[in-house]
Amino acid sequence: MGRRAATPISRPLDEPAGKPLGEPRTKRKVTLLLSALVALVTAGATMSGPAVAADDIGVAACGDGSYQAEAVRNGNTWTAPGYSGTDMLSAMRAAVNSLTPGRTSKQRVVVRGSGSVPGNQSLDLPSYTVLDVCGTINSSGTVGANHAPIRTQNTTDVEVQNVSITGAPYFGIFVRNGTNITLGQINMQLSGGLGVRIDNHSNRNVRTRNVRIDNVFVSGSGSHAVETYGVDGITIGTVTARNVGESGLLLNDTINATITRVDAENAGTGTGYAAFRMANRNGRIGSSYPVNIRVGEVIARGGGRGVFCVSESGGAQIDRVTISNTGNNAILIENCYGVNIATQGGTITGGGGVRIAARTEFANTSDVTLQNLTLTNNSLTENPCGVRITYRNLTLNNSSRSTCS
């Protein structure tokens, strides 16, 4: 079953997230000169003008483009509207608080520099706020429940374009009961805690809606890299998880999800968690399971499980899987319904076996298709027999099979 974030535990850092290649030096100089000229001409309009539209905010590099406020570090001094001092969180709060009150369109804050945020405090983003952090936020000291370096609750139209986070936060980024939420390029090299948590737990009768995550890299978290609970409508580019304590991507009670890729290495080692896990009626719409969870690719190397569907979840299609040397099941489908794995192919090599199973407290597993898979040094087991379980185009190399059809 999905759970809330574990108390942060120490995990070793893994490979650093690769930064996108920068612009050539000459081009960068030209860009900076042009930006400076534009800033001189339009400074007044930029700093005090109307909020920029969402489509105008998209930028090629962190900090480029127009903004309404900024927090800048020079030496040990942070400067923001109405603030000058040594505290990063105070500077960021001052920049956010300087935006137009009661706004109904997005305004943007750029943070230039790195610093620390206490683990028991948060930068809270109100509605219609865009945050672009060109630096690293280190979560330091004792954590507080439900705190995060970046947090937004009961809001709409909030965007985090870029940020790097280190330390062991309770959550790295925390979204609760939001709509129209966008996370861009997120890099977390942690030593505990949970990476990104998105849920609806301030009012479970209203789902968090319309979420987009472009690319998230998380290493060293004690819990999950990315977890959702109570979300309707989420599009994810790539979740990259390295040496995280639990799942790479965990979807709980989430519907209408499209994920391009989950790439996990050593996710949930020694546990029953998985590179990609669905739990708590994930994918269930009303009382049925139409296909509404679509995943392009799951890559799992080492760790706990590769793909795990449990507790009345389903309505899922995974196009491709590449799973190797998991310590627990490569794939476990347990009390799930309407699951189609490897529609476009996949390989499972070594590690734990592939298993179709069920517990007695839920209805039996049904309407599951495993196809286009090559199993090497593995096993395929169905126990107990499920309902309408289909196996198609399977190649078993030095692998056993014990199924009901």
UniProtKB/TrEMBL annotation:
Q: Which SMART domains match?
A: PbH1
Map out region (Disordered) in residue numbers.
1-24
Task: Output compositional bias ranges, type Basic and acidic residues.
Answer: 12-24
What InterPro entries does the database record attribute to this sequence? PbH1 (IPR006626), Pectin_lyas_fold (IPR012334), Pectin_lyase_fold/virulence (IPR011050)
Can you tell which superkingdom this protein's organism belongs to?
Bacteria
Q: What is this protein called?
A: Right-handed parallel beta-helix repeat-containing protein
